[in-house]
Amino acid sequence: MSTSRYNCTIIGAGASGLFTAARILLQRPGTKVALIDSNPRCGKKLMLTGSGRCNFTNSDLRLSAYNTDDPAKLSRALDRFGSSDAIDFFENVLGVLTTNKGDLYYPATFRAGTVVDALRFFVEEHGCQMINGNKVKEIHKDKDLFELVLDDGSKLLSEKTVVATGGFTYPKTGSEGDVKYLMTGLLSYKDFIDFSCSLVPLYSDDQSLKTIAGIRIPATVTLDDGKEQTEASGELQITKEGGLSGICIFDLSGRAVRAVDSGIEPVIYINFCNAEPGECCLMAAVRAKMFPERSLSAAFSGIIQRTVLDYILKKTGYKCNMPAKDLSYDDLVRIADALTSFPVKISSYGKPADAQVSQGGVKLSSLDESMQVKKTEGLYVVGEAVNVDGICGGYNLQWAWTSAALCADGIIGEL
Ligand SMILES: Cc1cc2nc3c(=O)[nH]c(=O)nc-3n(C[C@H](O)[C@H](O)[C@H](O)COP(=O)(O)OP(=O)(O)OC[C@H]3O[C@@H](n4cnc5c(N)ncnc54)[C@H](O)[C@@H]3O)c2cc1C
What we know:
single chain, 415 residues, FAD/NAD(P)-binding domain, 7-stranded mixed beta sheet, 5-stranded antiparallel beta sheet, 12 helices, 26% strand, elongated
């Protein structure tokens, strides 16, 4: 088998790997770069992003949207390459028109394929060697050179190598959590946090939620993980398995998963009315007075979807056909409390195949400001393989671009 030699090898042609290659080749044309991916085509996960529309960044880039072991370094990284830099790169380097819905940015075509194509065209035109359908199995370092061993037995040599293999969720896209075994011997176990899920449905042992499976309702949800309370709003979905899903749940899921993993049973309080309890009580009291002969289910059906209302009434111990006129003030308070703060104990969460993002990976604190492994000169880690994960809204792809840009700039400075 032949051994080719490069200035830089990049393992993984997803968002962060493609961007790293593009930025190196933009700043230093002629650099010998190889981009290796186990899939026959690059950017498989990127194609799925934003339901195929690719929400590639968010102009409200706040630290609180992220989870990491090194918030100060993350903050510096986002300052050095933020959302306006990503938009500028897409528009002025890759030629991709962009558009926004509030703070959320998309390609103007609303097609993730536009972003994948733009990155692929750019790196190919700039001489990047694309090695597709071949998995990197081992990385060795001998003096100043890295040797990569591929599935087909071939070997690549390079001065720098970048691990851009993503996390362990949605493994059908090729991201199978390889960073951990690839870096055995180059990192200590203390530099790595085991992968877990984020942006994932949450489950309760209470099977009764299955009776309202399929429901989609605007809600405000509050997670109590025993340490603090965190709130999110948006469409709440009840999955066919009786799990909680939707963007508001995804945004709290990282924290809920960490609580479950550490043996705590967090509680999600659902406000189905997006109103204060007193306000909800008043709305119910007004309707009980307007429609005294109606059943509770009919009298309050103008406040909240009837399926959900009936479920809450039953769970709170009321018969749906009870006449509204029979409610006491205490009953109204009780029903309003249940509608605005319905507790669901979380005991588990979805599988990696259902999670949009991984939490865990190589600790950000084990990398320098250029994403270079502090203990192994010339070795870099970017994107989801690093212990940085964000909520929904373009934050995860922004991390892929940010880490890739800092890595590329660091490599260019060293070559
Ligand atoms: C359904 C879905 C929707 C999403 N929507 C959004 C969104 O709208 N906005 C947003 O910001 N984020 C979104 N995300 C998250 C975002 O896609 C990821 O955070 C991002 O793709 C991570 O980029 P990456 O380059 O680190 O990893 P990936 O994109 O996962 O790329 C890693 C690549 O490495 C390759 N690879 C892995 N191991 C090896 C190996 N040993 N050898 C060779 N190749 C290897 C894989 O085949 C893969 O192509 C979404 C995720 C999912 C699953």
